[in-house]
Amino acid sequence: MFYKIIRPIVRFIVWVLNGHLHIHHKDRLPKGNYILVAPHRTWWEPLLFALGASPMEFMFMAKIELFKNPVLRFILDHAHAFPVDRKNPGPSALKIPVKGLRKGDLSLIIFPSGTRHSAELKGGALVISKMSKKPMVPVVYQGPLTFKGLLKRKPMEVNFGNPITIDKKTKLTHENEQIIYKQLEDAWNKLDDELDPNFHYVAK
């Protein structure tokens, strides 16, 4: 219920601050729940992805430090966020999203690189996808990367790609992981090209 209440509030705030959120190829989203997989470019991407894919509701990974504040913890808990210790993730970082995806009520937003300043892909998204038997949907964001740029009302673009499914017989060996990573990277590049062939992300 909290999620449904806060979503229109977030949508209104985004409209007031910027007013130029454009969603592309929402028709590519599969029926049922799924895992949105994106390169991490700015901290407000999860909000935009969740707005763009509504009415689907999403789980989010959030760093454990954010849950120390009781008010913020309440908001995160009720917005389907769950804590992850980035230094020592532990099995819960996989078990919680897998369990949520298997129930079928929620989808998941995940950034394989972990941080906005890392290009190194982590294997968590692949493991979660295979264990939950849910497809990964590549998605990219292009637009302002700073709050100042956001307030200048430069267009914000979200582009959804076609689902990528990991066959249940596929073993996640290092070799197979690299093949799937390549699929994701190629999908992200294609989505970026669809929006703007001249786009090049530079970490801020």
Structure in words:
The chain is α/β, with parallel strands linked by helices and 204 residues long. The protein has helices at residues 2-17, 45-52, 70-78, 92-103, 124-132, 147-151, 174-195; strands at 21-24, 35-37, 58-63, 81-84, 107-110, 136-142, 156-160. It has one domain (1-195): 3-Layer(aba) Sandwich (Glycerol-3-phosphate (1)-acyltransferase). Helices cover 40% and strands 16% of the residues. Strands 1-7-6-2-5-3-4 form a 7-stranded mixed beta sheet, with helices on both faces. α3 links the parallel β3 and β4. The chain is globular. The termini are far apart.
Overview features:
Glycerol-3-phosphate (1)-acyltransferase; alpha/beta; 16% strand; seven-stranded mixed beta sheet; single chain; 204 residues; 7 helices
Brief digest:
It comes from Lactobacillus crispatus. With 204 residues, the protein is of the alpha/beta class. It has helices spanning 2-17, 45-52, 70-78, 92-103, 124-132, 147-151, 174-195, and strands at residues 21-24, 35-37, 58-63, 81-84, 107-110, 136-142, 156-160.
Architecture blueprint of SSEs:
Blueprint: H1 2-17, E1 21-24, E2 35-37, H2 45-52, E3 58-63, H3 70-78, E4 81-84, H4 92-103, E5 107-110, H5 124-132, E6 136-142, H6 147-151, E7 156-160, H7 174-195
Parallel strand pairs: 1-7, 2-5, 2-6, 3-4, 3-5
Antiparallel strand pairs: 6-7
